[in-house]
Amino acid sequence: MISLDSKPVTKKTRRTGSPDVVIVGGGIIGCAIALRLAEARMKVVVLDRGEPGAEASSAAAGMLAPQGESATPDTFFEFARASRDLYPEFAREVEALSDMKVGYRRDGTLLVALERLSAKAVHERAAGLAPEIRSGLFIAGDHWLDNEKFAGALVKAGRRAGVKFHTHSAATRLTARGGRVESVQFAAASKAARKSLSAGTFVLSAGCWSPELTGPLGLRLPMSPCRGQMIEFDAPQPLAHVVRAGHHYLVPRAGCRVLAGTTAEYVGFEKAVTGEGLRSILEGVMRIAPVVKSFRFRRAWSGLRPDTADHRPILGYGEINNLVFATGHFRNGILLAPITARAIADLILTGATEHPIDAYRPQRFG
Ligand SMILES: Cc1cc2nc3c(=O)[nH]c(=O)nc-3n(C[C@H](O)[C@H](O)[C@H](O)COP(=O)(O)OP(=O)(O)OC[C@H]3O[C@@H](n4cnc5c(N)ncnc54)[C@H](O)[C@@H]3O)c2cc1C
Predict the structure, then answer these.
(1) Contact (CB, 8 A) for 233 and 296
(2) CA angle 109, 105, 113 (to 5 degrees)
(3) Which DSSP symbol is given to 178?
(4) Less crowded by CB within 10 Å, the N or C end of the chain?
C-alpha cells in the first residue's frame, strides 16, 4: 500500500445534508470515480457544465491500447496495461447496471502477444489495405469499445447507483480556507443565481479545463488542450480489427461504421473541424487503406485531449488536504478510466491505494 497524506472519508468526517464527495467534471474519469464511490455508499454529486460525457470522452476513438503510447514496456505502459486488464469486468458491470450495450470488443485472447505477420497475413486480416504494406504486428490483446455509448452508460449506471448529477452547472470557483476546500460555487446556464455546495472531499476531473479552477487557488497545473479531429464513415463491409499506423487509424464501430483519426493540434480551446484536419486524416488513413476512398461520409467532430507538461495524468492529493486530482489523461483517458477510478476511490475511502500512482502526483510539477 502506498500511504498518502490524505484524510479518508469516514462516518466521523461526514456532514449531514452535504454530499461526502463533490466531483467537478463528469467526463469518463469523473463518472467512473463517482460510480466507485457510490458503490461504497458515499453520497456523491457530479457537477458538469454541459452534458456529462459529451466532451473528450465522447470524441475519442475508444481504443484500449497500452501499446499505442509506449514502444517499450515502461512503468506507464504497465499502468495502462493494468487498466486495460480491468476493462472486461468494468464494461460488464457498466452494461449490467445501465442495461445498455457499449460495443465492447475483444479479439481472441486478452493476453498481450505480438505476432509478426507476413504481407499475405496482413492483407487477409483487413481487406483494402495499400499494396505497399509488406508486414505488420498483430496485437492480440488489444480491445476497444464505443466510448460514446460507454460514457452514456456510465452516467446511467452512476444514477442507478445513487450518484446525483447537476448538468449544465459550471463550477466557477473553489473556496479554500485553512488548507481545505470548503465549497464549490457553480452556475446553471439557465439561471442567474449562483449556488454553492460543501463536501468532505472534492475531486477535480474537469479534463483540459481543470486549471481554470486551480489557478485562483494558486495551484499551477501545466495543462493544455490538444485538439483531435475524427471522421466517421459507412464502409461497404464491417472492419474486423483496429488498423493503425502511427497516429492514423481506422476503428470499427457497430455494423459497418468506421472511425478514422486523428490530428494532434495545440490551438487553444477551439473545437472546430477544419479542412486541414480532415485532409491530414484522409491522407493518413488512405495511405494505410486506399479503400477508404469509397467509404460514405457520415459525420466529423473534434475533441480536446487534456494534455500535461509530461503527457502523463495528474492523480492524487496535492497541497490542499481534501482536493483530489484526476485529470490530464491526454490520449489515454478511456483506457485509464478503470484504474483511475479505483485508485482515486481508494484514496478517498482509505487514504491509500495499492495502484502505483506516485509518479503521477500533482506535486511533481513543483
Ligand atoms: C480525437 C480523440 C481520440 C481519442 N482516442 C482515445 C482512445 O482511443 N483511447 C483512449 O484511451 N483515449 C482517447 N482519447 C483521450 C480521451 O478522450 C481523454 O483522455 C478522456 O476522455 C479524458 O476524460 P476526462 O473525463 O478527463 O475529460 P472530458 O471527457 O473532457 O470531461 C471533462 C468534463 O468536465 C466538464 N467541465 C469542464 N469544466 C467544468 C467546470 N468548470 N464545471 C463543471 N464541469 C466542467 C466538461 O463539461 C466535461 O464533461 C481521445 C481523445 C480525442 C480528442
Answers:
(1) yes
(2) 30
(3) T
(4) C
Residue 168: which residues within 8 A CB-CB, separation 6 or more? 48, 49, 50, 51, 188, 189, 190
Residue with the nearest Cα to atom 25 of ligand 1? 27
- Cβ of 63 less than 6 Å from ligand 1: yes
Q: 80 with 64: CB under 8 angstroms? A: no
Q: In this structure, what DSSP letter does residue 320 have?
A: S
pLDDT at 216 over 60: yes
111 pLDDT above the threshold of 70: no
- Is there a cis peptide before residue 262, judged by omega within 30 degrees of 0? yes
Residue 304 CA, closest ligand 1 atom number: 53
Task: Judge if the beta carbon of residue 59 lies within 6 A of ligand 1.
Answer: yes
Contact predicate 29/306, CB 8 Å: no
DSSP 29: H
Smallest Cα–Cα separation from 327: which of 243, 238, 169, 202? 202
- Note whether 360 and 316 are within 8 A (CB): yes
| Rounded Cα gap, residues 351 and 344, in angstroms | 9
- Tallying the residues shown for the chain, one arrives at 366
| Ligand 1 neighbourhood includes 288 CB (under 6 angstroms) | no
Kindly tell me the sign of the dihedral angle through the C-alpha atoms of 151, 153, 157, 160: positive
Please report the pLDDT score of residue 233 as a whole number: 98
- In the structure grid, which three cell numbers stand for residue 43, read together? 453520497
Reduced 3-state DSSP string for 233-282? EECCCCCCCCEEECCEEEEECCCCEEEEECCCECECECCCCCHHHHHHHH
Tens digits of residue pLDDT in 176-187 = 999 999 999 999
Q: How far apart are CA 65 and CA 177, in angstroms?
A: 42
- The region, left, alpha or beta by phi > 0 then psi within -120 to 50, assigned to residue 41 is left
Residue type for position 178: G
Structural domains of the chain ordered from first start: 1-103+143-222+309-366 (3.50.50.60), 223-308 (3.30.9.10)
User: Contact 154/91 with Cβ under 8 angstroms?
Assistant: no
**Hunting for cell 450518484 — which residue is that?**
163
84 lines ligand 1 (CB under 6 A): no
